């Protein structure tokens, strides 16, 4: 078969038009640099949406991919495999959890968590204990269940009747949460830092208050750590930095550094309610993904890597502050570790996409979190030289937008 020649315009001809990708086509990556099909280089501050936490083409991950790829890619869940058992053991050794379930994405991990919470409540209390409490501007995935639980109604519009028994409350409003959580509540799901919702960190007292209210009413506390997990905030999981332990935790994105894998972690007591046949997956926990994720977790759980997250976080915030002194472009700079949001000042309202597009012209790959927030989620081991070079380019992009 001859090679098929493709360009950016091919996307508009053959792909379902769900995305509006940049007008260049990334071709290869190494560390925190990406090159497009024209050979232009970019500094990567997006990390594939907080995914490539060890950068592109990490040599130890390439070796695992090659070695496991020569052994066994997939076997199905009628059988277990050594890589998934090693990964589950590593994650349970490093966290509060006793048990792991593996899927292919954050949405699937959250779907499993929400189903498990309802099954646990129905088994223990009865069919009336089904209410799930979530928070406005939250994001938990794109399945019909997770998009209904997420606190951004636009993502659920136009798909017919949505799952019922879901309540949305203001984020960081502990009084509202205490008033709402009751005997009918089966679970509260919360992001320790709202990612898609604008990079908003939870107040420690808010998370502790949710923990206390869940304990009082026999509800499960679910931490969606799809974006904050695997070192992103400077702890292996954000709950560790907050000192508040959930009953169920979901993780994906950085877990496979770009290989699709997600996980739900929980305790023996809760996991017992997912008996054989109650939930399932074909690809989840396949040996190729599990082998890569095991190496990712081994590397990122190194204290030196986690300490380096805060150093890079401080450097990014210093660069943003310096740029703001020149252009008065930011209203607030916030976040935890290497999940940082820079909210635009009123003079630049709704222009985050303009900054992103200008940055691309100057050789930077960036993210936004809504129309007003620039989001930074680079590799946790980004070389400082790349970080500084990236911000020199970002400053030029902001100058373009400002002028």
UniProtKB/TrEMBL annotation:
So which domain of life are we looking at?
Bacteria
Which Gene Ontology CC terms are recorded? cytoplasm
Q: Which residues take part in binding pyridoxal 5'-phosphate?
A: 106-107, 139, 224-227, 282
Q: What is its EC number?
A: 2.6.1.11
> What Gene Ontology terms for biological process does this UniProt record contain?
L-arginine biosynthetic process
Required co-factor?
pyridoxal 5'-phosphate
Question: Is-annotated flag, keyword Transferase?
Answer: yes
Enzyme category, top tier: transferase
* Pathway entry: Amine and polyamine biosynthesis; ectoine biosynthesis; L-ectoine from L-aspartate 4-semialdehyde: step 1/3; Amino-acid biosynthesis; L-arginine biosynthesis; N(2)-acetyl-L-ornithine from L-glutamate: step 4/4
A GO molecular function term, named singly, is: N2-acetyl-L-ornithine:2-oxoglutarate 5-aminotransferase activity
Q: Which residues in this protein are found as N6-(pyridoxal phosphate)lysine?
A: 253
What InterPro entries would the database entry show?
A: Ac/SucOrn_transaminase_bac, AcOrn/SuccOrn_fam, Aminotrans_3, Aminotrans_3_PPA_site, Class-III_PLP-dep_AT, PyrdxlP-dep_Trfase, PyrdxlP-dep_Trfase_major, PyrdxlP-dep_Trfase_small
- Spell out the subunit comment: Homodimer.
What family does this chain come from, according to its entry? Answer: Belongs to the class-III pyridoxal-phosphate-dependent aminotransferase family. ArgD subfamily.
Q: Give any extra note attached to this record.
A: May also have succinyldiaminopimelate aminotransferase activity, thus carrying out the corresponding step in lysine biosynthesis.
Task: State what protein this is by name.
Answer: Acetylornithine aminotransferase
Q: Which organism is this protein's natural source?
A: Caballeronia mineralivorans PML1(12)
């Amino acid at each position: 078969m001859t090679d098929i020649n493709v360009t950016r315009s091919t996307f508009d001809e053959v792909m379902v038009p769900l995305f509006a990708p940049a007008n260049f086509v990334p071709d290869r990556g190494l560390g925190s640099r990406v090159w497009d099909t024209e050979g232009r280089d970019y500094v990567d501050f997006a990390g594939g949406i907080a995914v490539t936490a060890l950068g592109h083409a990490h040599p130890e991950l390439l070796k695992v991919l090659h070695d496991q790829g020569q052994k066994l890619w997939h076997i199905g869940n009628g059988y277990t495999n050594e890589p998934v058992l090693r990964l589950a053991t590593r994650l349970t050794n490093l966290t509060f959890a006793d048990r792991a379930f593996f899927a292919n994405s954050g949405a699937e991990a959250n779907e499993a968590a929400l189903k498990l919470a309802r099954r646990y409540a129905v088994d223990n209390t009865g069919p009336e204990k089904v209410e799930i409490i979530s928070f406005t501007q939250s994001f938990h995935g794109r399945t019909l269940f997770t998009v209904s639980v997420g606190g951004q109604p636009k993502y659920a519009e136009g798909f017919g009747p949505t799952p019922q028994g879901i309540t949305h409350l203001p984020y960081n409003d502990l009084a509202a949460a205490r008033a709402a959580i009751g005997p009918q509540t089966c679970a509260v799901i919360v992001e320790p830092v709202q990612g898609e919702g604008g990079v908003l960190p939870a107040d420690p007292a808010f998370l502790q208050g949710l923990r206390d209210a869940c304990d009082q009413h026999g509800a499960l506390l679910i931490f969606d750590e799809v974006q904050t997990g695997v070192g992103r905030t400077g702890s292996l999981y954000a709950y560790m930095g907050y000192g508040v332990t959930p009953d169920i935790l979901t993780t994906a994105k950085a877990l496979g550094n770009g290989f699709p894998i997600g996980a739900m972690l929980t305790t023996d007591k809760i996991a017992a309610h997912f008996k054989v046949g109650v939930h399932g997956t074909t690809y989840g926990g396949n040996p190729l993904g599990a082998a890569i994720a095991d190496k990712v977790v081994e590397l990122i759980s190194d204290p030196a890597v986690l300490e380096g997250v805060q150093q890079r976080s401080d450097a990014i915030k210093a660069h943003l502050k310096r740029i703001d002194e020149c252009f008065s472009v930011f209203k607030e700079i916030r976040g935890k570790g290497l999940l940082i949001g820079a909210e635009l000042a009123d003079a630049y309202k709704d222009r985050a996409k303009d900054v992103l597009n200008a940055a691309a012209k100057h050789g930077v790959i960036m993210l936004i979190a809504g129309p007003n927030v620039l989001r930074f989620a680079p590799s946790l081991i980004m070389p400082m030289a790349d970080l500084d070079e990236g911000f020199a380019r970002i400053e030029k992009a902001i100058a373009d937008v400002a002028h």
